[in-house]
Please model this.
Amino acid sequence: MRRNLMFHEDFYVNHFLGRNNRGNKIESGRLCYENSEDAVTYNVFSGFLTRGDPLKKLASYLTRGDVTDAVELYLWGGKIDLENDRFLPFGPLSEVRKSLERDIHTFVTEPDIMLIVPKKVLICIEAKLGSKNLTARDAQERPGEKPLSRQGLIQRYCEKNTIIHPDEIFDFSSQRQPFYGQIFRNIVFAASMSKLAEIPEWHVVNLRNQHVMHLRQGGPEGMPIVRNVRSFLQPAYKKRFIHWTWENIFDRVIKEDEQLADLAWYMKTKSLNCGRAFNCF
Model:
């Protein structure tokens, strides 16, 4: 298990594995797999901690602003506090789940990554390594599961949402197909958590693997997803959703930072399906 943990392995073991998990991380044991998105997420983002201010730089890129205050890192719904060896669940996330997913018993909404500047900005990141974005399908969910269909998702997360005013954010009249349900839930949760935490600005990022996209499509497919998701957002909120790649993070945040040399080595040498994981040079 530890062979896949390049940074702060004791923290992961203490808070996410076995008896120590306490529900902190769904499917935490899959970290040992070569294609584990969680392993890459943990290594890259925990690797940013204690190494200068790369999270500020990343948050500035993602928000197209100038983030100067300290950025708190949350993975899978909890704050990564290395100094005090604590994993602190984000209260507003728990409240949104109680409101929208009280009867969901399996796989509640769990943002992969959150970057938070208290009282200023909240960024939810849906991270992918080798997998695709999940889309809605015409099927009936079983009791205790999240909706599978587009209409079911909209009904649960918008029509029954008493935290935000969904009509101010969403416009489904010209929404393109397919419907990316996972990203949609991230947007609903980002807006709802921000409202409860009194954070005025929220963003959602789809973080994907450029190398895998090229292998599958013969070229990047980021823009079609951006157009698709923005098609159901009101004009004032369209730019709250963006698409980035792990390679973007490497090129803009990691590559030229001497303090992140070990992280650069990790991304250059990381494998996926017995081949190169990223286009990092």
User: Anything to note?
Assistant: The first strand starts at residue 72 and ends at 75. Residues 2-276 form one domain. Residues 181-197 form the longest helix (17 residues). The chain has a mean pLDDT of 90.
